[in-house]
Amino acid sequence: MSHPATRATINVEDARILEHSVYAGDQYVMRLQAPATTNAARPGNFVHLVCDPAIPLRRPMSIMHVNRQAGWLEILYKAHGQGTRALARRQPGDTINLLGPIGKPFKLDAYKNKPLLIGGGVGIPPMIFLAEHIKAMPGHIIPFVIMGSEVPFVFTPRPSQIMVPGAPHGTIACIPLLEDLGIPSRLTSRQGYPGCFDGYVTDLARAWLIAQAKQLHEIEIFSCGPTPMLRAVAALAREFNLSCQISLEEYMACGVGGCAGCTVRVSTANGPSMQRVCVDGPVFDADTVFPVANGSS
After folding, report:
1. Model confidence over 109-127: pLDDT tens digits?
2. Which residues, 6 or more positions from 293, have their beta carbon under 8 angstroms from its beta carbon?
3. Beta strands in 137-231 (DSSP E)
């Protein structure tokens, strides 16, 4: 994707806060009226917004959900620094300036029959957006979604009514929004939350993949979350010889490719390259970000 083409798709928009809800663990869901950005948003895109007029640097936020007809989008974030704590104080009716949508999205079509979506922490929002997108595509493809968190989930988990091969006994907690759409999901945590798998997302994903042994050729993986989790997901995909796309989380200043403050080392056909997460990503093929060390498996 060329840099001018990328920038040409970015809107500068004064978005009005429609709803702003707080959840356990200093987590917030904000609904923003931003019709231009919402209409162009695709799974994996993010917005770069002003948290407070007194704070000059914007903050990147993944898009979790959109309603194109109503012209709003939702973001999920955790208040943990100056910017996000200032954002947490903003009220419905306030206006927030944002840039968006930004970044290279997950692929938008030609999915295999069994997409596996893995999200962790603040990497959950892009997976919800992607799951809804895949479900709405022609072809009746239904993804399987695994989400992990070490703080309470921002939704109230409930027992799933959708069977999931390979899910250990008692692993029944699901995401209500996805369950209502007929999308199977399971939750993981090491905090002992009821119905959740006790372990990492990759542990549950491995159990599911083993149960799909005869259909591995129909599976591909999409993931977003902290770097250690993404590294483990990339290794899991390599273990089962599956294609895998990941969305990276990086601090960024400008968000539009000008400052090069969010560069990561990526393997290309022409050798290693430093690429910017904001415009060359945030979505990359997992093997380019986490290549096999020294050619080993």
Report:
1. 999 999 999 999 889 999 9
2. none
3. 144-148, 158-159, 173-174, 185-189, 197-198, 219-224
- CATH numbers and ranges of domains, the chain: 3-102 (2.40.30.10), 114-249 (3.40.50.80)
Which conformational region is residue 255 in: left (phi greater than 0), alpha (psi within -120 to 50 degrees), or beta? left
Alpha-carbon gap, residue 49 to 207, rounded angstroms: 39
Per-residue pLDDT band for 295 (boundaries 50, 70, 90) equals very low
Query: What span, in angstroms and rounded, lies between the C-alpha atoms of 23 and 154?
Result: 6
What's the token pair of residue 168? 């250990």
Beta carbons of 106 and 130 less than 8 angstroms apart: yes
- Does the pTM exceed 0.90? yes
* DSSP-derived secondary structure for 33-57: E-HHHHHH--TT-EEEE-S-TT--S
Please say whether the beta carbons of 175 and 146 come within 8 A.
no
